[in-house]
Amino acid sequence: MNNYKFKFWHYGLVLTVGVAALITYNLEASDKSYFLSGEATHGHHQVELSCSTCHGDGFTGQEVIQQACTGCHSEELALANDSHPRKKFLDPRNANLLNQLDARQCVSCHTEHKPEITHEMGVTLAGDFCVHCHSDIAENRPNHANFEFDTCASAGCHNYHDNRYLYEGFLTANIDAPDLLEDGQLPLRTLVASWKETHPHSESDQLASPDMTPPSNSGNQTTDIVGHWRSSTHAQTDTNCSSCHSDGQWQFSSAEIVDTCGDCHSQQRDEFTRGKHGLRLSQDVPEAFRKVSGAMTPVEALIPMKSSAQSELSCISCHGAHETDTRNAAVDACLSCHNDEHSLAYRASAHFKHWQADSSSGVSCANCHMPREVRGDQVAVNHNQNHNLRPNEKMLPVCLSCHGVEFSVAALADKQLLKSNFNGPVENQHETFQLIRERIAKIQSSK
Amino acid sequence: MRTRAFILAAAAALSGCGEKTGIEPQRMADAIFAVIEADRASYTTNVVNRLQNEEKVIKADEHWQDNQALPLPAQMMRMGAERVAEQESGFNYALLSQWAINKQNKPRTDLERQGLAYIVENPGQNFYGTEKLGDTEYFTAVYPDVAVSPACVSCHNEHVDSPRKDFELGQTMGGVVIRFPL
């Protein structure tokens, strides 16, 4: 047998085939991480390897990416009464402005996979982007003449999208409210009360006996499980073992837990899967990705988390499987994972001390980050904890339950107070209110 | 002979298929303006002026959602214009004025400035022209927007940001601009 002599190009061929096989495997059978052109923003970090969610089949154009943006975010933007909706820029008279900044496309301001130029709110433009269209603002508002254009959207005065609580009329109407309202209180939740109203002939107000027997290998846990369930809201609302373990299934994946809870709590499921906690389980994410990635684990987050927080997130991460303890879910569950300065400072804050003494007058983590919202004649908790997080003026409706608007805007704009979890006095006045007072005086003098 | 005649007739008929037939841009713009103006005048007179100024049932307010009020007539028209733009209907329209309260609604192109000045100086007449915006040539028509009810006059004359406060009923306060790409 002759010894075959490998030539240089043979090595090249083998290397090329090997690299091609590795890349193809990563693309078709693995997590596609070789194709990530740069780390995604915090908003898309959870689904950055679900490429087709934004890019379609990979050969689609700008239009598909824009549709992907609006597919997930249009509802939120409509709710925010978006100040710069795409439809405002479709008039041809804006052609010259669009040449400078094409505001019809989300990616004009929010380019993904560019961590080196990504600022707050995932914006990838220089901070003075407002100047492109509003360079003449001082003509209409002379008191804005000395302001820099990079302060419009960074000083707590204006937001690009959501100005529901920052517009002149709202601030003018509420400017006289005291720092702390005398009878301030968060709205009371109505979920259980409304269930009881719609089920007046329920068999009992308090179920006592489980309708299934847990598997024999549960051991001593069975007593705990039944005890937890018996003292839970579920037992008060005709929700027995078989309501969740309907097919005799005793173990659930995170996705199955969210689906099972969502059978009754569909609004909460939809909100949970829009936020970072549950985004990987969203119906907007391809099924194949959901299966491969599983749910998010806290340690994968971009913000500091406790190293012990390794379990996948689902409804029971905060509520427990059988306890449904909302008080635990409102503080302890959060602090069992979150390890950033703001979270660690919470237990020293006045908000916590009041909450610990009386939950109706204090403020838990959930009270701010999962706000109670009035929806018709109901008050429900929004389970998307990112809903009012950025820009933080979106949190004003919560603050205004107990505080005046001037105090609240100043507090939210104070970065040091945010870090200390508002554990200190609000010392600085917000300049916005000086301008509002000048405006009120101008309106009164013009009458 | 009969076959040749048939071929000639068919060729003549088919040659006509390639010709553009339809309504002239000016006539189309006039028709669209008639609809816009009728809706606008009806809303201003029969809804806003009646409910706010005469029967005092509900106010019209810029922040109509928060204040549970009626949208201002100009906002109502802009909502329609934005819906039309979103549907890519082949034309756009806007309500502009040299004395706009919202400065975004002041004239921005040379033709808009020219057209608005013309309709103010020539009451009852329209202005037509063409202009290039971006890479596209447009037919642009400007129609007078007249104060049809006391609500128009009182609101603009009393608003702190209004650059003109001596409007009278029946005066041209601005213009409706309609555009078609050519």
Question: What key phrases describe this protein's structure?
Answer:
heterodimer, A: 447 residues, mainly alpha, 24 helices, 40% helix, 2% strand, B: 182 residues, alpha+beta, four-stranded antiparallel β-sheet, 18% strand
What does this structure look like?
The complex is a heterodimer of chains A (about 450) and B (about 180). Chain A has about 450 residues and is mostly helical. Chain A folds into two domains: about 30-135, no CATH class; about 190-200 and about 225-430, no CATH class. Helices cover about 40% and strands about 0% of the residues of chain A. Chain A has a two-stranded antiparallel ribbon with strand order 1-2. The radius of gyration of chain A is 27 Å and the shape is flat. In chain B, α2 (about 25-55) packs antiparallel against α3 (about 75-85). Chain B has about 180 residues and is α+β, with helices and mostly antiparallel strands. The longest helix of chain B is centred in the N-terminal third of the chain and has 30 residues, at about 25-55. Chain B has one domain (about 25-180). Chain B has a four-stranded antiparallel beta sheet with strand order 1-4-3-2, with helices on both faces. The model of chain B has no long low-confidence stretch (mean pLDDT about 90). Chain B has helices spanning about 1-15, 25-55, 75-85, 110-120, 150-160, and strands at about 90-95, 125-135, 135-145, 170-180.
